[in-house]
Amino acid sequence: MRDFIQRALTKLNKLTPEQMQDLLISAAAEIDRMETVLDSLNEGVMVCDAQHRLVMANKFAERFLPQNREHENDQIWTLIKDDHIREFLCQTLVSGDRVEEKEFDVEFKAKQRLLSFSVLPLVRNHQVSGSLVYVEDITEKRGKEARLRRAENLASLTTLAAGVAHEIKNPLGSLSIHIQLIQKAVAGNQLSELDKYIGVVNEEIDRLNRIVVDFLFAVRPMDLEPREGDINALIAELVEFVRYELDEAHIGCVMDLGENLPPIDFDERYMKQALLNLIKNAIAAMDGGGTLTITTGFNDAEIQISVRDTGVGISEENLPKIFEPYFTTKPTGTGLGLTLVFKIVREHQGDLNVKSREGEGTDFVITLPIPQRETRLLAFGNSGGQYAV
Ligand code: ADP
Ligand code: MG
To answer: If we measure between CA atoms, which residue out of 345, 373, 313, 139 comes closest to residue 222?
Structure first.
């Protein structure tokens, strides 16, 4: 269509009034079609010119804009009521940066909505001719993700429950046998044997109790109370806490803590527990001594914490199983340590990875996202069906 109009423009003076009319009609129909497409979108599209003035907004985007716009020549951010979004648009547009999916919480008709803003420079013939501001309401999408996570949790709960059922079978069997033995001893008046049997019964009850307590600990919903904190300080504190154990086991500790680590939000109790579990596993893997190395670092998006040992390592066969509840290679292990570490890290939107080589050592790496989004409550003007950001 554009080519056709451009060709027509070159010979404008040769066109008959009828041809001119046809041309205008088809151009209007084309614009109409474009508008219908844009208006049927469930996302907001706003186009600005090189001076950042709003030149087009689709129906969805109109919800963010004042209904009566008096100063059409003003820059787009002056139309936005909310300080944070206004500042974001002003900064991004003036700098000419491309920013994708910056999230803002807004309140709309007493409900929280989550909006995602993207700003993309429009480039034609190697020149910036304006920008596109793209707005998405991602509230439902986020809700769906949360529901999916809950379903995942439920699935892991089933695995855990199956694990518990398996774990309690042995102590229950043993209890049943020893109670029968006690009954026989009482009936045959062999009271000297009783002490031994009752001792076993007590031990088995302890074991059952530990299984149930650990299980509850692993499945209990985490009431995370994240606060801004310093991961390096937490690690230094933990290492002091296990210092005696390290010395006893002839394990040297190297702390290579990255400088200027950005502060992040985390729940100190749980994060301590996660790191302590990794450290304890590392200590257990270095029976004949070794070196524990804890490293922290970061990039734009995340903080990395590595807990590395020079211990026995994990066989290729066992590596895929270590995060499974109740998987343990230790005689008195619970097999719930890494399950818990994984859960804590996931609750912090982070990730847990492991590299290991048998006979050489193991490296567990926790990554935690550096928050990129501003979460706030906004004060709103009363403007009918508008989001009024
Ligand atoms: P537990 O420590 O009770 O056995 P975990 O869930 O903490 O349970 O660990 C599961 C298994 O993973 C351990 O039994 C061990 O085989 C393996 N593992 C974990 N950490 C290490 C490590 N640092 N080095 C070698 N093996 C490890
Ligand atoms: Mg453990």
So the answer is: 345
Architecture of domain 143-219: Orthogonal Bundle (1.10)
The span from the CA of 381 to the CA of 80, in Å, is 11
163 ligand 1 Cβ < 6 A = no
**Dihedrals phi, psi of 197, to nearest 5 degrees:** -65, -40
Look at the domain 41-137 and name its fold.
Beta-Lactamase (3.30.450)
Decide whether any atom of ligand 1 lies within 6 Å of the 89 Cβ.
Answer: no
| pTM tops 0.90 | no
pLDDT (tens digit, 9 = 90+) per residue, 123-148? Answer: 877 788 889 999 999 988 888 887 77
Confidence of residue 153 (pLDDT cuts 50, 70, 90): low
Separation between Cα atoms, residue 147 and residue 149, nearest integer Å: 5
Which ligand 1 atom is nearest residue 339's CA?
A: 6
CATH topology for 227-369 is Heat Shock Protein 90 (3.30.565)
Residues 294/239, Cβ–Cβ less than 8 Å: yes
Cβ neighbourhood burial of 325 (10 Å; 0-12, 13-18, 19+): buried
The model's pLDDT over 158-184, given as tens digits with 9 standing for 90+, comes to 777 777 777 788 788 888 899 999 999
Q: Cα(150)–Cα(145) distance, rounded to whole angstroms?
A: 9
Ordered by start, the domain boundaries in the chain are 41-137, 143-219, 227-369
